[in-house]
Fold this protein.
Amino acid sequence: MSKSDLHAVAELVETHEKDIVSEWLELQKKTGALQSGRIKEPELQAQSRNFLKALREALGKGGVNTTHAAYGPVRDMLSDLSSSRAVQGFSPAETATFVFSLKQPLFNALTRAKLDAATLAQISWAVTVLLDEFGLHTMERYQKSREEVILRQQREIAELSTPVVKLWDGILALPLIGTLDSQRTQVVMENLLQTIVDEEAEIAIIDITGVPTVDTLTAQYLLKAIAAARLMGADCIISGIRPQIAQTMVHLGVELNVVSKATLADALKLALHRINRTVVAIKATPAKPAAAGPGSTE
Amino acid sequence: MERIPILKLGDALLVTIQVDMHDRLAKALEEDLTNKIVAASARGVLIDISALEIVDSFIGRMLDNIAAVSRMLDADTVVVGMRPAVAITLVELGLSLSGVKTALNVERGMALIQSGLDRQETVDAAVDE
């Protein structure tokens, strides 16, 4: 396949640009590109036109070699397009259709050009290879953008879900919600230890009511956090172990050699006791407060 | 050779580590402290490591050793002011310093030693009776 063949394609595209674009748009519409309402027709039109223009220019210079620098703008355009579509919530098929639906209009234009059979076959093959490659590139970018979205969300969840709450002077609570993995435990542990320093806390209550499952690994993480807190001079109490989880842990042979309480309330009671505090009901107020005159002594 | 000062505070000894520990310094401290516990007949040892930013397994084991030696000489060891990063490192190294008592700061550590001594005295008093 020589450069000049694709050069011919570039010329062909140039002369039939209008037809190709309109045919292409028609096809995209037929496959439902506009149905979801995530993208407006003028925008799609502009994208299609720009892409075709970039492709035409690249075809003239770059030939079949898609790694050629001339294809840089085409790739960039596709990257932008698929990243924005990934964020907008397009499905993978919808995103890939953008490139693949260009095939038919291009072939139609080639057929109309009345080339001899051998050249037509050759050119068709070259164009197919090119567009397939761009299709793959689109998918790769799409996938990557999706992964970036997922990563960002993971980070946000990790940051949101690890608050350390001060319950009393010297008592902290760490309500854990969601599954614990090594990365989250790291964040939790650092948060907890830093807050222990900042608040000069003696006791930290780790509440695992919101942890759906505790396996050997999770228990290991918890024990590490507790050991680190102990090294800094703070005691930990675990609370909120659900009945099923308690059973599973015993079955797994997981042993938490720490003080554990059924509920956060019990744990707080114990913590207050440890720092020599107690919560008592305030004395019942007299039925008629007005009767107690100022200065009255008891 | 530089040495880490050991201060006597009532019945307890106070060691404040202000410099980065290297192995020789750690060894020297262990030895000095042992001698000082006997010389001052101290009942408690307070090691303040709030300025210590880097620990390795050797320093971790030294702390454990000091605790074991002091226990043998009838003195409580309390490590105070450990930084979060240091605590995490020690845990990751698998050193939980189970023989060492810990406290958040020197004040709390002192209170801890004092309460240990008080308890000891009541036991002694009970034995005397």
Remarks:
- The domain at 165-274 of chain A is CATH 3.30.750.24 (Transcription Regulator spoIIAA).
- Chain A is about 60% helix and 10% strand.
